[in-house]
Amino acid sequence: MLLRFALVCCSLASSACLATADNFDRRALADKHAPAGIMGDHLHGKGEWMVEYKYMNMYMEDNRIGENTVSDATSLGTAVPVGPPGPGITIDGVTTNRGATPTQMTMEMHMAHIMYGASDDVTLYTMAMLPSMTMDHTRANGTDFTTHNSGFGDMGFGALLRLYSDENEDWIFNLGCSVPTGDIYRETSTPTGSPTAFPYPMRLGSGTFNARPGLTYKRYSDWYSWGAQFQTDLPIGKNYRGYSVGDEFRFNSWTSVLLTDNISVSLRGEHLWRTEYDGHDPAANGTLISTNVEQFRGGYWYNLGLGAQYLRNGHYFNTEIVPTIGQDLNGIQLETDFAFIASWSKSF
Length: 348
Ligand SMILES: [Cu+2]
Prior knowledge:
Layout: H1 2-13, H2 18-23, E1 49-66, E2 68-70, H3 72-76, E3 89-91, E4 94-96, E5 100-117, E6 122-139, E7 144-150, E8 155-165, E9 169-179, E10 187-188, E11 196-197, E12 209-211, E13 214-220, E14 224-236, E15 243-244, E16 248-258, E17 263-274, E18 278-279, E19 299-312, E20 315-347
Antiparallel strand pairs: 1-2, 1-5, 1-20, 3-4, 5-6, 6-7, 6-8, 8-9, 9-12, 9-13, 10-11, 12-14, 13-14, 14-16, 15-18, 16-17, 17-19, 19-20
């Protein structure tokens, strides 16, 4: 950074230095990408490729009704083992958890992301996902069980379009979508002894084509940058099982501060809204467990992202810890505690 100050001062003092100062690319320092939890925030020059591997793990524990955490006994409607079926819990006229209640879940995701600068104003990208979900439960009869599902998720595609840029700022439109490559119907015999479909949050994809338009604004100052992004994920129609996942809307804003040209730290705030599912998969028995209830998928989450970025010899490392500090959940759902995100990327 000191070198840059020197170049700027130098260029002011002497026009001989101007060429060097003009060659300096502010968008090539440690804060060149938004924090790890953000996608679609930057463009690549014509002919430039970027490959990225991103890992994410999200941890959920305990059930929540609205903004209040509830005990497993409340979730099951009984403190003493009975049944199944147990009494369950009735919220908004829907009785659920008569068979079991989820108690905790981890959602792990491996992502391979490729970007290509088709022109200086259009960057194409594709993203492959490998989700891996593990959920622990307690039955109404007091016993526990764990289910697990993993595999190929929905593929993302899109084009990032430069709407406007000047020396310090970028406006980027994300013309994105996803295709239903993730398997949405798989069975497990763990909970009942006979094959039963995985409940909604344990499924690998949405089963629908989704539109994912988004808009990003980014601004660079000398030693920091900031940005804001509105990003959506909108299923189109219903999948072959007769339902569609909720609409998702995310509003993010962040600031990244350069400690040196190669190291930055970031702070991010994320508002996340999800609507309930539409339709119904006949294999999803909502009376047995809340993860099968379409109305109990929506809500609002507020996440904080504490990140660090490191750039070395063209290798870019981007990490973030994302605690959920506020959530208001429809019906009864597992509450999110935090997520961890780490990525490596390289442009060439
Ligand atoms: Cu990129």
